[in-house]
Design goal:
This protein has 204 residues and is an alpha+beta fold. 29% of the residues lie in helices and 11% in strands. The model has no long low-confidence stretch (mean pLDDT 86).
Length: 204
Amino acid sequence: MVGKLIMDRRDFFRAGLKKITKTVVNEVDARVSKKAKRYIRPPYAISEVEFLLACTRCDDCVTACPHKVIFKLSARLGADVVGTPALDLLSKGCHLCEDWPCVAACTTAALDFPKVEIDKDGTDNNEEELPIPLPRLAKATLNEKTCLPFLGPECGACVPACPVPEALILNAEKPYIIPDLCVGCGMCREACILEEKAISITSR
């Protein structure tokens, strides 16, 4: 009876410790995810908590970016994120490079391609490799109050700059962003001819 009581108490404390650990992890995840809204990670970044644990601040992805869109976060954002990579989508656009050099340069899988979906029987029946879905980087929003075509003058400079088919379209000579297709790469913002850009890019 005494032995059973001891085992019950052990199980109770183990369950309690597991619950506390899960709560702490969830709190940390919520905190860092909220902070991450202030910047945009490079393509295929894993979840923020896992990213901070995996990223070694090696700068390999920064160096690998051929368009110099990736930069290192400064110390003013906190010791936990200083030196980690982010995208400068306010002044440049991510070109969604075909060979993803930033991801290829990451040796710790802080930037990592999503796993390919496998059929229910456990085998991939396609002979060709399934295409990797584009990363959802940020959210692009068009300001119709400042966008030239909505004020009368013709423009449309942003549409041909969009690398994602049908994500940015012209309707009655006016550009419209299709949220379900837009990945927030910022190429449209970079192409905008206005000094005060008519397209804003924000964290998802």
